[in-house]
Amino acid sequence: MNKEHNLLSTWGLNHIKIEPAFTVLDVGCGGGKTIGKLAKQTVQGRVFGIDYSKDMVEYSKEENKKLVDEGRVMLIEGSVEKMRFPTNFFDLVTAIETYYFWSNLTKAFQEINRVLKQGGKILIVSEMIKDGKYEIENAETIAKAHVKLLSMQEIEIVLHSAGFINVRIFRKPCSPWNVIIAQKHKK
């Protein structure tokens, strides 16, 4: 996954400004390549990763061993629907090629909203998307992976229902790649 998602994650991360002192969470951290990219940008902050797979957490720890040893990166096994992080903790939450594995998208977005600081943002980067073409051309892969694809508009509706504002959608021309950015209310 690290090799397959490298270009996609780089393209997606270019859509958001990441400050050096940010505290960032990568949901579905998988092989940990994005963790390393985020740590390069948050040299005064911290990066956390969460994944439901114990094997992926261990792999990500090995991939980012130096950063983990320095205390700049923390990786844990867990579910996006019920995280152990404090409320109003993260400046940014990223979710790259992962939303379609979540069992309850509304609950996951509500939980992400909870752990984000006021004005914090979520960045969702995905190649697998329901757009009338991708899901037909890739039906076999989608069935094997047991994923639930949604359209950009469906994801936007769920984000709004979970309390997010300022939802923006970006599509790479002639590609299924897409980015959704949403913000937690500033109170």
Give short descriptive properties of this protein.
187 residues, alpha/beta, seven-stranded mixed β-sheet, 8 helices
User: What's the β-strand tally?
Assistant: 7
Helicity range:
25-40%
Give the N-terminus to C-terminus distance in angstroms: 38 Å
Physical arrangement of strands within the biggest beta sheet: 3-2-1-4-5-7-6
* Low-confidence segments: none
Class derived from helix and strand content: alpha/beta
The profile of the biggest β sheet is:
7 strands, mixed
Please, how many helices? 8
Can you characterise this structure?
The protein is an alpha/beta fold and 187 residues long. Helices cover 37% and strands 26% of the residues. It contains 8 helices and 7 strands. A 7-stranded mixed sheet has the order 3-2-1-4-5-7-6, with helices on both faces. The N and C termini lie far apart (38 Å). The relative contact order is 0.15. The model has no long low-confidence stretch (mean pLDDT 93).
Question: Topology of this protein?
Answer:
Layout: H1 2-13, E1 23-27, H2 33-41, E2 46-51, H3 54-63, H4 65-70, E3 73-77, E4 90-96, H5 105-115, E5 116-126, H6 134-137, H7 139-145, H8 152-161, E6 164-171, E7 178-184
Parallel strand pairs: 1-2, 1-4, 2-3, 4-5
Antiparallel strand pairs: 5-7, 6-7
